Structure to design on (254 residues):
């Protein structure tokens, strides 16, 4: 597997943080620090911040993403936002299946698949999240679970569409806890995901797929994680809210 064939992407996941005014300050802080990045840089932000962040990121190397989308184009789904709506604003990315959506908002592998399909149909790039809980890791079912999550999420996605998918491996026990997977643990599961993708499509598709690690990635641990052969970037929560930390992780990916 040739890492050089893949594009490293560092994506921030701002989660439920930052008002529009605060979002403007944050994106303006990030902009100059990442302008010479050799890797892809994406900021995924709350819906209400999209307009201001899109405007600020215009003409820069920063891609803008949302943190979820609904699978229908429109209709009686109070409180939901469709992939079409995001695409119409100029949003380029959307995170799907984040463990916080699965854990707190009833997201299932099946609804993840519907959202992935809708996002791809709307022309968006998808950051698809998979990962195990601590109990699942201790039970020894991480590989099977992550392979299953990957297979179901990618149901009905063509090899061509897969070019617009990034998979983020995020062990739930490492998210926001300060506990990072060791680089060997991170690489092992990213490799399993790549093998799973190879089994669904083929070796070429798997080799071209960008696979991120996420879960307490920080400037201190990013170089070692990103040096792993199957880790092609990061999905960054807490550290993406600090311009210097986010930029240091971007630099580590270059
Ligand atoms: P964290 O979050 O970096 O704060 O652990 C990562 C994520 O949930 O995407």
């Amino acid at each position: 597997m040739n890492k050089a064939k893949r594009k490293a992407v560092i994506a921030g996941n701002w989660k439920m943080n930052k008002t529009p005014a605060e979002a403007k300050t944050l994106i303006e802080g990030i902009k100059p620090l990442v302008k010479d990045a050799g890797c892809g840089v994406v900021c995924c932000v709350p819906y209400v911040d999209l307009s201001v962040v899109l405007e600020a990121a215009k003409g820069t190397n920063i891609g803008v993403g949302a943190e979820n989308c609904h699978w229908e184009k429109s209709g009686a789904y109070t409180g939901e936002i469709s992939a079409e709506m995001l695409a119409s604003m100029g949003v380029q990315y959307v995170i799907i299946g984040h463990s916080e959506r699965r854990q707190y908002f009833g997201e299932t592998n099946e609804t993840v698949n519907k959202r992935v399909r809708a996002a791809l149909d709307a022309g968006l790039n998808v950051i698809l999240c998979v990962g195990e809980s601590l109990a699942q890791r201790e039970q020894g079912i991480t590989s099977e679970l992550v392979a299953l999550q990957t297979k179901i999420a990618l149901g009905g996605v063509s090899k061509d569409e897969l070019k617009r998918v990034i998979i983020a491996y995020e062990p739930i026990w490492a998210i926001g806890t300060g506990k990072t997977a060791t680089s060997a643990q991170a690489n092992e599961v990213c490799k399993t995901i790549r093998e799973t993708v190879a089994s669904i499509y083929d070796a070429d598709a798997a080799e071209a797929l960008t696979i991120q690690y996420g879960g307490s990635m920080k400037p201190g641990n990013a170089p070692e994680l990103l040096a792993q052969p199957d880790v092609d970037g990061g999905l960054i929560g807490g550290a993406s809210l600090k311009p210097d930390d986010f930029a240091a992780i971007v630099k580590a990916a270059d």
About this structure: The mean pLDDT is 97. The domain at 9-253 is CATH 3.20.20.70 (TIM Barrel).
